[in-house]
Design goal:
Strand order of the largest sheet of chain A: 1-8-7-6-5-4-3-2
Helix content of chain A: 40-55%
Radius of gyration of chain A: 18 Å
Number of helices of chain A: 12
Structural class of chain A: alpha/beta
Number of strands of chain A: 8
Low-confidence stretches of chain A: none
Oligomer: homotetramer
Largest interface: A-B, 45 and 45 residues
Mean pLDDT of chain A: 97
């Protein structure tokens, strides 16, 4: 298993053309921009990367384009998100074939189950691959929380290499950091909550997976660097700025959930000249001109667009 | 669009061999037993049919075996359950190719969204196929409830042909029955809650989709026939018996959710000589001997097994 | 313990004057109207009776006025709803002093707990009083479900006399009816869901506690009588009418929850000449003229107001 | 309105005698211990202070004993927690009479409502008193989240003086800190999550309300002092220790919720010689010897008890 991933690892937002094909040029532009900013890894096919909106062919296309563009400069993690074990194992095999450096899997979902099924799920995935497996804790999507003791046990046994925590449960994350250290479980612990990265770093997180890092990768890298040198005042001030920037997610008052959040990232990236369109996958509508106006205002207020 | 489906339409439980291959012989035996009992339709690849545990190849295998075995004697509905629109459309195309008579789709899930996305989702699915589309309302799995007005509107416009209601919300179902009639929306309204079918029929449901109907198809058919002739006392007494039989779902005290419910259907079908094994798909464990003993007790108490 | 309560037992809606005093005349008019219609009991200080909006003095005032007006013609149940045991016991003592025939208590709420605390709660209440205790199962308010086995055990031991089920879980209610019979637990099982009373009666419920019964007590009594004589067609048709009438709860599009539901009952009762105002307790706003217009339309459509 | 409260403000745990009377001596001992440690305020009748388990007489007894013992050395905040407005106003009046320096109120609960009712609730409370009103955001108990914009608006208008955030939603808290500053709303923002206080301070919280601060007030004061001088490494290390100490909340494996958390604080305080018993209010059971043994182990491991 490769060395643990540390630092800023944005979940790559997927640009589409107007007719909903993969916009490979925009993708390459965005990846290059994040690499230039100094990100430490890239997470393709995450929730923000519209993995669950994609056919298998589209998943392959996105991952393959990402791996080729990144060309080994940083590790590429691949989301293998699906409902239950057999499909996740299929995606894992494809990810390995296409050159991913690690895979990221959630707890099983849709069918109801308990911790026994969660554990068996991760064990079966890990047994099927040579790649490091990251557990993606995202109860808002899968409606199940990965327990601290389960994660630490799977880490100590080498089943999983790390955790992407998007649980919104900072109390549990705090315990996870400490238990990981106590048990020497070796988990790379990454937070997925882009507006509270400062607290996660202070608590001992190994990195972050900020969706907003597609829009402002340099900000998140500055914040990481400040944390590395112990300048917590700077870490927190950068967070304040990024938290204000995150208000783009409320720009489209007609949208909810994915259409509001990832929709606003796409709108911002279009306004910044990185993406060509802000098209969204079916059944989600692209943001309109009113939302785009608000996004521009926020980008301007935070110094990312000329006034 | 074909005529609306009425009556008892069991969601077909999928038998596996010990090494988790499709057990085609057991499947055919079970289908034949349900057809003999007089069921009015069969729903392949439903939640109970382990659709979300299946690869695409396995989905094809199950549906194709079912369609061939049924051979047109009753309509076969096919579950096309997946996270978002594009994948559901892929499954819908396969279902049509393999000879299904209708498809059954849930609201989109995993990614967060609102009613706008639900509506667009069903419209896109319907636009992609000639087959009738049934909306599957199952918030316990997708964590979203399909609204009465949305369903009635989609019905009136011919987007959907019916609803399989597994919402557990009998208040909403009651309103749906009345609104469907008032708006002449033409929806076939089927309840998925096997222990309260009597109330649903009295309220005006067009049929039921009882998982327990795999175990006791004759009971559900008797109940339907009693309802058709207005013998409500018999409808309710049959329900009492079926509700007691449903206690097999609590037989495995070590299991939760799918492993407890569908697991017990498989155990019962094995004890009844219909299935060869009670094997479950990964990551779910098959029920053990202790659970099987309890299942036999319940089957015996309800007169389905000799003492 | 007095004989079990059977039949229609409306939860009494509390009329207020414009300055939010108890409108005793309207209350007496409403009680008399329900008694004239033939209701079999009355439930004062229920959720619809604004018990949680009332000071202790107001609780006493409402219960005392109700007991005096009813004057023994039917049993009066008194809600003793509060957060934890000691306060519920205080309310129980007051209810006994003021002449209630039974008390109705929910599971403890606000502080988190488990089944152990629920059981001890009901045992402590019962130990404190000679009055029969009814368990009020209302997870939408207390965020906890009373388990079937707990209720049956408490019934068999004589701790509780019955259950008012407002759980919205018809599957669980169905099991409760059967288990109560099997264990001879003697619980009076009343449903609180006014739009699915037909199914509950068919399943074997001993009665109903319909908030809408304040508006149309005669309808619910007709329905009960039809059920007693086994005329299920009539039971269901009456339910259809009552379910349409229940749409008054959606008349105020600016309101949610209590303000929408009980607010519309008050508006309807004012339009019917029973209440003098539709005033609501703080912090809830009374419904406005637009909502009242819609309520009148619905009352007219269902034949309760002249066109 | 008095100056805003800053620093460490433990919610005072209430000691009981074996027969569930207020143990005034233990209470005074505990208050004195917290004052000696340098806490900046004390919050009586909070959730941890068993406010919802208390009769009105008991509430008065607790608050009055606390105010007298504290004797003006630090501000005393009083919980006025109850279901709806009228009762909260009654408690507020009593709190003022008994000498509290501020009151703390949650959103209304039990009856369903929306933001309109929440806003009116806080306005009515504030209009009824001269005391500063703190909003207590605790969705785990009241099942409603106070919105950032509502809080900031009520702060800017002087309706509320601060917020005790026990929402578990660090993303929302981060936005609240920034919006409070941007709008100059003047809210004192206190976090109630004892294991993530470090992140909250770094984000700009004005203080903390740690239940665990009853057990280790000196630790929380040291942490606050470190934050004041910008020594974030020390803030975080102290948090690590306190987070490990918080494991006492899992010591009683037979308990859940309040009985597990506050139960363990009482057990720890007894083991530390501060409380005489670890008795709990009905319907909650006191922790047994097995739990006490685990609590002692944890206290010993963290250096609070001699080995």
């Amino acid at each position: 298993m490769s060395a643990a991933i540390r630092g800023v690892v944005p979940p790559v937002v997927t640009p589409l053309t107007e007719d909903r094909e993969l916009d490979r040029e925009s993708l390459e532009r965005s990846l290059e921009r994040m690499l230039d900013a100094g990100v430490h890894g890239l997470f393709a096919l995450g929730s923000s990367g519209e993995v669950v909106f994609s056919t298998d062919a589209r998943r392959d296309e996105i991952l393959s384009a990402t791996v080729q563009a990144v060309a080994g400069r940083v590790p590429v993690l691949a989301g293998v998100i699906d409902m239950q074990t057999e499909r996740v194992i299929e995606h894992t095999r494809r990810a390995a074939d296409l050159g991913a450096d690690a895979v990221v899997a959630t707890a099983p979902f849709y069918a109801l189950g308990g911790e026994r099924e969660m554990e068996e799920h991760f064990r079966a995935i890990a047994a099927s691959t040579e790649l490091p497996v990251y557990a993606y804790d995202i109860p808002v999507c899968v409606h199940r929380k990965l327990g601290v003791e389960l994660l630490v046990r799977l880490g100590a046994e080498g089943v999983i290499a790390g955790v992407k925590d998007s649980s919104g449960d900072d109390v549990s994350f705090r315990q996870l950091v400490i238990r990981n250290r106590e048990e020497d479980a070796g988990l790379a612990l990454l937070t997925g909550h882009e507006v509270v990265v400062d607290g996660a770093y202070l608590a001992g997180a190994d990195g972050s997976v900020p969706g907003l890092g597609n829009v402002d990768p340099a900000g998140y890298v500055r914040q990481w660097d400040a944390a590395q040198r112990g300048d917590w005042q700077a870490v927190s001030e950068e967070q304040d700025r990024l938290t204000r920037l995150m208000r783009i997610a409320a720009a489209d008052v007609t949208a909810t959930g994915f259409g509001a959040g990832v929709g606003s990232f796409k709108t911002a990236l279009r306004e910044l000249g990185v993406f060509t369109t802000n098209q969204m996958p079916r059944p989600v509508a692209a943001q309109g001109e009113e939302a785009a106006r608000r996004v521009r205002e926020i980008l301007t207020a935070e110094g990312m667009l000329g006034a």
